[in-house]
């Protein structure tokens, strides 16, 4: 009888144990796109940093930026939702410490699609599909991106398992 109780306790622990997050890294075009979409709405970046990210996302590289300086885009959590019932409904909630930003419509869909592009696994719920990451930290080196060598964009994030 004791062994059955012990197994039941172990099984309950495994079933109710919190899911661990996996650390992920993305480089290149997906990282640049993710950093630009998040960075342009971040309250933590300067206007000039946001302008550089917008230009890079639009495929333009005719801007002045200090050599060797990088742009660091950070967000505590990103959660995007697409409805599979209300097909026109897309939304994202972004957390930047004590600041929250909500995106809707096309801007939310761009971020949702970018998360899918870099390999973030979707999670379903009644009528919706969610994609979420936490602890996002992207480093963009505009000088290196301008050199067209394939480098200069890196993002690290955690993804729930």
List the helices and strands and how they pair.
Layout: H1 2-16, E1 21-27, H2 29-39, H3 47-57, E2 71-83, E3 90-96, E4 99-104, H4 105-117, E5 123-125, E6 128-140, H5 142-146, E7 153-160
Folded structure, characterized:
There is one protein chain. Strands 1, 2, 3, 4, 5, 6 and 7 form a seven-stranded antiparallel beta sheet that branches. Mean pLDDT is 88; it is low at 1-18. The protein has helices at 2-16, 29-39, 47-57, 105-117, 142-146; strands at 21-27, 71-83, 90-96, 99-104, 123-125, 128-140, 153-160. A hairpin with a 6-residue loop joins strand 2 (71-83) and strand 3 (90-96). The chain contains five helices and seven strands, in the order H-E-H-H-E-E-E-H-E-E-H-E. 34% of the residues lie in helices and 35% in strands. The chain is α+β, with helices and mostly antiparallel strands and 161 residues long.
Task: Summarize this entry quickly.
By secondary structure, the chain is α+β, with helices and mostly antiparallel strands. 34% of the residues lie in helices and 35% in strands. The chain has helices at 2-16, 29-39, 47-57, 105-117, 142-146; strands at residues 21-27, 71-83, 90-96, 99-104, 123-125, 128-140, 153-160.
Low-confidence stretches: 1-18
How many angstroms separate the termini?
34 Å
Residue share in helix = 25-40%
Derived from helix and strand composition plus strand pairing, the structural class reads alpha+beta
| Number of DSSP helical runs | 5
Tell me what portion of residues adopts beta-strand conformation.
Answer: 35-45%
Radius of gyration: 19 Å
**Number of separate strands:** 7
SSE order in H/E notation? HEHHEEEHEEHE
| Overall pLDDT level | 88
Largest sheet data: 7 strands, antiparallel
Shape: globular
